[in-house]
Specification:
4 domains; five-stranded parallel beta sheet; 13 helices; Jelly Rolls; FAD/NAD(P)-binding domain; 40 strands; alpha+beta; about 15% helix; binds flavin-adenine dinucleotide
Length: about 750
């Protein structure tokens, strides 16, 4: 046995996606980090040891333009490229590579932290060190760091340090939460084991072991949907332990869950009700995936009302979009639905004050142990949201070390610095615009080779993929309005003389994409035609600031509209009508978000163009403003790319600037839902909207200088590219030249930052 002490700037305990996000963020800011995980594999519940698929703000495609960017965004996109089938083992390595790539991270796997040295009075605890035992190597390591981030999920480190926390459900009166019980209860979301099956190609028998639970003696066959083809996280509802103590009863919970899975498998194989002769059990998890335990108390506790009302926080640092998704404490034995869910109308914000302890002065937390009520935790617990919190906590910890301040002091005095640092690293933050003093592009003159000025599909661009779409249900065309909208042209066919009703709706909040306020109505008389005809409909909307509008075409059984691919930048199509339910879930009725899904026409556009010309895709979008869709696409899109013709974006300064690096953010279609495992398969391994081939040129300030290529890439498949500059860094101009995309018609650039 050996003992050692490891000193770093930051120690992150827990290598789930929150911990990975935190460690990578801090390391990229130049801070040394010890990342300590008590299991041999990173990824927490998403790892191949547990196999929960990674969801986030897109909420299985229900929220719009909501996919996370930043560290989790990179991992999503990388996984899509390496692992489109969703193999959990391949995902493990996407996560591991992301961590190993950072030289500032010292990774300690198999190292269980079980001792914490902390001092100070109850209202100001200070963590001096944490100590972990590495299984297999017999090494006892004491980690010493000025900042500690508890990403253990269960919150053991903070607990041992004396940080305050909550367990179970708050009483309704405490935060005025409609979904909270009348009285506080020590009940949790339960834990789960998952299993994988495989078709062996020949009959395989199954003799249930003695520990298998006979599920025909339980309500399960009547209350839950069991399908022989389902596997892995489809069985999320195999959940138990919510009425016990999730941690101290962990062994008992595992045994029950395992016996239950063996019983379900016996039922599938031997009841005669399923086509399962050739199926065999390929894998069963042995580590219960834990949903809920301690939630630390921060300076702010996120609540149900803040999620549903989508409260805007001055210290916003991440966002979520999953529904408030709560499960009965009795889990799989509950006779009713396995979950009840309610969405906010769009994505919701998470404040920094929820990411540091109210009384442990040098402790941050991220992931499922952050500061929220039980109800709010129900929406923020999904892993991409946890990873976004992790990136924020890691960034904050790095800044705390830089400035020599506590997390609370950082929040009180340096929130803009935290937000701008997050934005510079393309983290998923909402409603924060670029006013980074270190971004020199903000003072540059921007010119481009061309820009898309017409929103929609120009008639000349219609290819062969044009399909009729009978207007049997209301359709919504979501489009950016900058500065105003007057009319739209539509390709239609009418079977009989009729009147098409057209409405313009605004969306309420800038991040929302549902019709909220009726702004204008018009009617277009149509004569019967036997071929598609372009018609014009008034659609007046002159908002006080750029924002999205939804042009609703009311259902008319005499009218056919036409759809085409690809979807133009900044546009989405909503189809009125309830989306298909998951039969195991009780979803609150009457939610606009679900009544206007994008899924039925995902990737297709109605054939339309909007007038007048728009600034929504103008080049200035790349040097200011938001870095993700928020009241508009917030990117530059060129005219259509042509072979042998470059599209470029150029920055010029009146006086030379001294630059350190250039950061480019390309569009990677954040509306596209990605998932790490087998939830669904997205069609493209490389996101077509991404720029494929580009070069970056600079014009040095020295007299007589000529354009110099500082980076050239022919196979780009990432959203954010960072190019450090060498040598003389005084520049007069920068030019980004795009020669090819991965499939999109235009060159699309979200941000071009020239950092001092
Ligand atoms: C069955 C199930 C289904 C779910 N469904 C979904 C879903 O579909 N999509 C989704 O995104 N989310 C889902 N969730 C929620 C999600 O998995 C969790 O909220 C999320 O994993 C929390 O991330 P985390 O990083 O905070 O914690 P975790 O993923 O729990 O990771 C914590 C890490 O810390 C390590 N650790 C713990 N204690 C110590 C210690 N003392 N020392 C060192 N290391 C320690 C653990 O080994 C683990 O690696 C589900 C959860 C469960 C259990």
């Amino acid at each position: 046995m050996q003992s050692q002490t490891v000193e770093t700037d930051i120690v992150v305990i827990g290598g789930g996606l929150a911990g990975v996000g935190a460690a990578v963020a801090a390391a990229r800011l130049g801070r040394t980090v010890a990342l300590v995980n008590n299991r041999p594999v990173l990824g927490g519940n998403s790892s191949s040891e547990v196999r929960v698929w990674v969801c986030g703000a897109t909420a299985h495609g229900n929220q719009r333009w909501a996919r996370e960017t930043g560290i989790i965004g990179e991992m999503y996109v990388e996984n899509q490229y390496r692992n489109p089938e969703g193999n959990p083992i391949y995902w493990d390595d996407v996560v591991l590579d992301t961590v190993r790539r950072e030289p500032n991270i010292h990774l300690f796997l198999n190292t269980d932290v079980r001792e914490v040295a902390a001092s100070g009075p109850d209202e100001a605890r200070h963590i001096e060190s944490v100590t972990g035992w590495t299984m297999g190597s017999e090494i006892l390591t004491t980690f010493v760091a000025p900042l500690v981030i508890d990403c253990t999920g269960d919150g053991l480190v903070g607990h041992l340090a004396g940080a305050r926390y909550r367990l179970g459900k708050e009483a309704r009166s405490e935060f005025g939460e409609e979904w909270a019980p009348e009285e506080a209860r020590r009940e949790f979301l339960g834990s789960t084991l998952l299993f994988y099956t495989q078709d062996a190609g020949y009959p395989v028998k199954y003799v249930p072991p003695e520990s298998a639970i006979d599920i025909t003696t339980t309500p399960i066959p009547a209350t839950r949907i069991i399908r022989s083809g389902d596997t892995g996280a489809h069985y999320w509802w195999i959940e138990w332990g919510g009425e016990l103590d999730i941690v101290s009863d962990n062994e008992r919970i595992r045994d029950e869950l395992r016996g239950f899975i063996l019983g379900i498998w016996d039922y599938i194989k031997n009841s005669g009700q399923f086509d399962a002769d050739n199926l065999t059990l390929e894998w069963i998890g042995n580590l219960p995936g834990k949903r809920e335990y301690r939630r630390f108390i921060g300076d702010h506790t996120l609540t149900q009302n803040e999620i549903i009302e989508q409260t805007s926080f001055p210290d916003t640092i991440a966002f979520g979009g999953w529904s408030i998704d709560l499960h009965p404490a009795a889990g799989m034995y509950h006779p009713g639905a396995a979950a009840k869910q309610r969405f906010s109308d769009g994505v919701f914000e998470i404040p920094f004050r929820s990411l540091y302890s109210v009384n442990a002065t040098n402790m941050l937390m991220a992931g499922r142990d952050f500061s929220a009520t039980h109800i709010a935790f129900g929406a923020s617990r999904v892993m991409a949201t946890c990873a976004a919190m992790g990136q924020a906590a890691g960034t904050a910890a790095a800044l705390c070390v830089d400035l020599g301040v506590t997390p609370r002091e950082l929040g009180r005095n340096h929130t803009p610095l935290l937000q701008q640092t997050l934005l510079r690293h393309d983290a998923p933050v909402l409603g924060v615009d670029n006013h980074d003093p270190l971004d020199l592009s903000r003072t540059a003159h921007v010119t481009v080779s061309s820009a898309s000025t017409v929103i929609g599909v120009e008639p000349n661009d219609l290819g062969t993929d044009v399909l009729p779409y009978p207007l049997t249900t209301d359709l919504g065309i979501v489009l950016p309005v900058d500065p105003r909208l007057e009319s739209i042209e539509l390709l239609v066919r009418a079977d009989h003389a009729t009147t098409l009703a057209v409405e313009v709706w605004s969306t309420g909040k800038l991040q929302n994409v549902i019709p909220v306020n009726l702004e204008a109505t018009s009617a277009v008389d149509l004569e019967p035609t036997d071929r598609p005809t372009w018609i014009r409909a008034d659609a007046p909307f002159d908002p006080s600031r750029p924002q999205n509008a939804i042009v609703v075409l009311r259902a008319n059984s005499d009218v056919t509209v036409f759809t085409t691919t690809p979807l133009p930048p900044g546009v989405l199509i909503l189809v009125h009508g309830q989306d298909a339910d998951d039969a195991n879930v009780d979803i609150t009725a009457g939610q606009q978000l679900l009544e206007w899904p994008t899924k039925p026409l995902r990737g297709r556009s109605v054939c339309f163009t909007a007038s007048p010309e728009s600034r929504a895709l103008a080049p200035e979008q790349t040097t200011s403003g938001y870095q993700r869709p928020y009241g508009g696409p917030n990117m530059w899109a060129s005219a259509n790319l042509r072979e042998g013709h470059d599209e470029w974006l150029r920055l010029d300064w009146d006086d030379p600037v001294r630059a350190r690096e250039i950061r480019i953010v390309f569009d990677d279609d954040v509306d596209l839902e990605l998932n790490t495992l087998h939830h669904h398969r997205s069609p493209n391994e490389i996101i077509p909207e991404l720029v494929k081939a580009y070069r970056l040129e600079v014009l040095p300030a020295a007299a007589g200088s000529v354009w110099t290529i500082v980076a050239q890439e022919n196979d780009n498949r990432w959203r954010q590219r960072v190019h450090p500059l060498q040598g003389d860094r005084y520049l007069r101009a920068v030019r980004l030249v795009v020669t090819e995309s991965n499939g999109a018609r235009q060159a699309r650039v979200v941000q071009l930052r020239v950092q001092a």
